[in-house]
Automatic annotation (TrEMBL), chain A:
Gene3D superfamilies, A to Z: 3.40.50.11890, 3.40.50.11900
EC number(s) on file: 4.2.1.-
Enzyme class: lyase
Taxonomic lineage from the root: Bacteria, Bacillati, Bacillota, Clostridia, Peptostreptococcales
Organism, scientific name: Peptoclostridium litorale DSM 5388
Protein name: R-phenyllactate dehydratase subunit alpha
Family according to the record: Belongs to the FldB/FldC dehydratase alpha/beta subunit family.
The gene coding this protein: fldB
Entry keywords, A to Z: Iron, Iron-sulfur, Lyase, Metal-binding
GO molecular function, one term: iron-sulfur cluster binding
One Pfam family it belongs to: HGD-D
Cofactor(s) listed: [4Fe-4S] cluster
Coiled coil spans: none
Claim: Lyase is one of the keywords in the record: yes
From TrEMBL, chain B:
Cofactors required: [4Fe-4S] cluster
One family name in Pfam for this protein: HGD-D
EC number of this enzyme: 4.2.1.-
GO MF entries: hydro-lyase activity; iron-sulfur cluster binding; metal ion binding
Keyword Cell wall biogenesis/degradation: no
Alphabetical keyword list: Iron, Iron-sulfur, Lyase, Metal-binding
UniProt-recorded name of the protein: R-phenyllactate dehydratase beta subunit FldC
Gene for this chain: fldC
Disulfide bond recorded as keyword: no
Annotated family: Belongs to the FldB/FldC dehydratase alpha/beta subunit family.
UniProt enzyme class: lyase
């Protein structure tokens, strides 16, 4: 086949390959005898990328394992080891994997150290403490204190910055690698480009019809989590932006079917039921065009202090007022007509003030909302019937609103 | 009635009717500041001539709080928020709420939105508390709180006043440590419920008054002859252990609490505020020297071994883990602690507790079984 006849490679395949390569690199490093870390999804990836330290992401693994149907098996293993079923299902899956050391749904190298950052929750600290203790490996924590103010204060930035510097010297000691300021500048530049491209791609949901099914973002964002600092990610996300731009021009979309209604989906996906959730929405011609979750992994800054601030503005680290503004902005920008809110049994922090946020979101935007009970990875905490009924209810209100019935 | 019994009755009354105390403070024109779990800088409140007032939930029905919290948030926070929403705590001038666990983070935000009459003061502790940058950060946070408390009270918190407050609190901590040791030596004089009441009453009293009463009971007990205890001795661990029903079950089975690692109890007073020229730094530095608490970062997970040491020190028969339902920091610690207990062949049971509990039969059966096992 000649080159001219080859179809251009789609961004989604590039993104999948980046992820595969990321994990392959980690395996190769492990096999070479290099030290490999387990890393929290919102730990400043610039540090590891600069040092060239291979890390893998337990949250990413837990999501993949549960999406492939093995969440229950892993959760039950941890519960048999004494862990309450109250704790986060990602943590239960990860602690099970630490113990069993294999899972055909998704394997990854065992850790020589753990890198923790609690800007998504404090359970991360406990989860990683236990890994560190059980495997007798060092733990590095970057503590990003919960931000009760709207803006991040200077004393917080100073504290986070000191930990950032300390984490670098700890990692240098653990891995024997040296931090290069020059390389750091480059990684920051690349990370900014990829974050901008990722956020740029997610912005395309504002078009009506949207050129993408919003749930696509849940698949693509793994690269935003794992590989923001790599040039390949910049290329892939920029390609994704281009594809969406073209789709807008062509009037096409990855959403199959007519897009009659546009919603905000609030919370982490229920990975074991992703297909079911998507199908139910599609049966009602609903596209998810607003989410603050995917955007959480696009971290924008112009210098190191701003980087510290950016890591303190991820969804679960912020005050009620800032959290509300993020949702109101997502609804407004993407012209959402309703919202589906996930009360996530695994995530106390995400769900702990969501009832009030739901009320305020309705007040400020006037859109109807429904909530459902679910879990990001434990299949026992989701009811298809409840979810379907709630979505059906929302659909009926949105339909009536569209016809002017409820206005 | 002996003086010991009289004092215990007095402690019991105060512990079981905190609202009476709050009303008294209000009628005396004293301002009170609510202090939620797990660590609040009470010394700052005291130094501003106000009364720190502990809020660790209550055995109450929850209705309004359900509008804010999903069902899987612990009952300590559910019932505390309930009291705030109902207006039960309107006599407080403000409430300090730390962010030491994810549920507490949400508690503060819900309080701010839902409880309009009582101001929310966030208490932001660093988790990298042993780093100098962590101490510095906490000092700044405490300074923000100090400024706010000065505004509320109208009183300046001078260094001298803060130093005096730290002395008062360290004296109280010392008295409390002496008390729990005394209670361990005199289980025939002090039941688990009475032990709990002595500790709990301190949350609602001004510290010099509480210290004085605690010193007196220690003195009165020490004047009594020690008796051989023919029951069992345990160390308790958990967040809170003030349920009269659970404590009654222990008493019925002749189980004495000889030491505890309860957040509401010994974790509050086992570590003094260290000596520093700058009292604000001293206050901030206390967090860096605390060990073995589920909400404070500890990759070494020292807690299990610390409890083992207590078991050995007091020649205890076992450990009772009182697991507050939906408390994830404690739930993560449990499997690691259990390994420590098992390694040292220390029998232990875990009983799930909840301030919403109405039926204690399961707890009773577990304690019965544990008691039988230890007695054999």
């Amino acid at each position: 086949m000649s080159e001219t006849n080859e179809k251009p490679v789609k961004a989604k395949y590039l993104l999948r390959d980046i992820l595969d390569q990321h994990y392959k690199n980690a395996w190769d490093a492990k096999n070479r005898g290099e030290k490999v870390g387990w890393c929290a999804s919102n730990f400043p990836q610039e540090i590891c990328e600069t040092l060239g330290v291979p890390v893998v992401y337990p949250e990413n693994q837990a999501a993949a394992i549960s999406a492939k149907g093995a969440g229950l098996k892993m959760c039950e293993h941890s519960e048999a080891n004494g862990y309450s079923n109250d704790i986060c299902a990602y943590a239960r899956i990860s602690l099970a994997y630490m113990d069993i050391k294999e899972c055909k749904e998704m394997d990854m190298p065992q850790p020589d150290f753990v890198l923790c950052c609690n800007n998504i929750c404090n359970q991360m600290i406990k989860w990683y403490e236990n890994i560190s203790k059980e495997l007798d490996i060092p733990m590095i924590l970057i503590d990003i204190p919960y931000n009760t103010e709207f803006e991040t204060s200077d004393d917080r930035v100073k504290y986070i910055r000191a930990q950032f510097d300390h984490a670098i010297s700890q990692l240098e000691e653990i891995t024997g690698k040296t931090f290069s300021q020059e390389r750091f500048e480059e990684v920051m530049r690349i990370s900014q480009e990829s974050s901008k491209a990722w956020l740029g791609a997610t912005e395309y949901t504002k078009y009506d019809p949207s050129p993408l099914n919003g749930f696509d973002l849940f698949n693509h964002m793994a690269v935003a989590v794992c590989a923001r600092g790599k040039q390949e990610s910049v290329d892939a996300f920029q390609l994704l932006e281009k594809e969406y731009a073209q789709a807008v021009k062509d009037g096409t979309s990855t959403y199959r079917g007519e897009q009659k209604h546009r919603i905000l989906f609030e919370g982490i996906a229920c990975w074991p039921y992703l297909r079911h959730k998507l199908t139910t929405l599609m049966q009602h011609n609903i596209n998810m065009v607003g989410t603050v979750y995917a955007d959480a992994f696009g971290v924008i800054y112009n210098n190191v202090d701003e980087m510290m601030k950016a890591y303190s503005y991820v969804p679960n680290a912020v005050s009620f007022e800032r959290a509300l503004k993020m949702r109101v902005d997502a609804v407004t920008k993407n012209k959402c007509e309703g919202a589906v809110i996930h009360t996530n049994r695994s995530c106390k922090l995400w769900s702990g003030f969501m009832y009030e946020l739901d009320r305020r979101l309705r007040e400020e935007t006037g859109i109807p909302t429904v909530t459902f009970d679910g879990d990001q990875a434990d299949p026992r905490n989701f009811s298809e019937a409840q979810y379907d009924t709630r979505v059906q209810g929302l659909y009926e209100v949105m339909e009536a609103n569209k016809k002017g019935g409820n206005l | 009635m002996s003086r010991v019994a009289g004092l215990l009755e007095e402690f019991g009354k105060i512990a079981s009717s905190p609202m009476n105390r709050l009303n008294e403070y209000a009628s005396e024109g004293k301002k009170a500041i609510g202090c939620m779990p797990i660590y609040c800088p009470e010394e700052l409140v005291y130094a501003a001539d106000m009364v720190p007032f502990g809020i660790w939930g209550a055995e109450k029905e929850v209705s309004q709080a359900k509008e804010y919290f999903p069902a899987f948030i612990c009952s300590i926070l559910q019932t505390s928020l309930e009291m705030g929403l109902r207006g039960d705590l309107d006599q407080l001038s403000a409430v300090m709420i730390p962010v030491l666990c994810d549920s507490l983070k949400c508690m503060g935000q819900n309080w701010k939105q839902g409880v309009k009459n009582v101001e929310f003061i966030p208490v932001i502790h660093p988790q990298n508390r042993k780093m100098e940058a962590g101490v510095e950060f906490l000092k700044t946070q405490y300074t923000n709180i100090k400024n706010r408390l000065e505004e509320i009270s109208g009183n300046e918190i001078t260094d001298d006043k803060l130093k005096a407050a730290i002395d008062v609190y360290n004296e109280h901590r010392k008295a409390m440590r002496e008390f729990v040791d005394t209670a361990a030596q005199y289980p025939h004089l002090i039941t688990p419920a009475q032990r709990s009441a002595v500790i709990k009453s301190g949350y609602f009293m001004e510290k010099p008054e509480h210290t004085k009463m605690v010193r007196e009971i220690v003195k009165e007990c020490n004047a009594q002859p020690q008796k051989e205890w023919d029951g069992l001795k345990v160390v308790t661990t958990g967040i809170i252990a003030d349920s009269p029903s659970i404590l009654k079950i222990l008493e019925e089975h002749k189980i004495a609490v000889v030491a505890d690692d309860i957040a509401h109890e010994s974790r509050q007073f086992r570590t003094d505020v260290p000596n520093c020229d700058d009292p604000m730094e001293a206050l901030a530095r206390q967090l860096s020297v605390m060990e073995g608490c589920s909400v404070l970062y500890d990759p070494d997970k020292k807690r299990g071994d610390m409890i083992v040491d207590q078991v050995k020190k007091h020649d205890a028969d076992g450990v009772i883990v009182l697991m507050t339902k939906f408390c994830d920091p404690e739930e993560y610690d449990y499997p690691i602690m259990k390994k420590s207990f098992d390694k040292h062949e220390i029998p232990s049971i875990m009983i799930e507790i909840d301030q919403q509990m109405r039926n204690y039969e399961q707890a009773r059966t577990m304690v019965q079984t544990f008691s039988d096992m230890l007695s054999n």
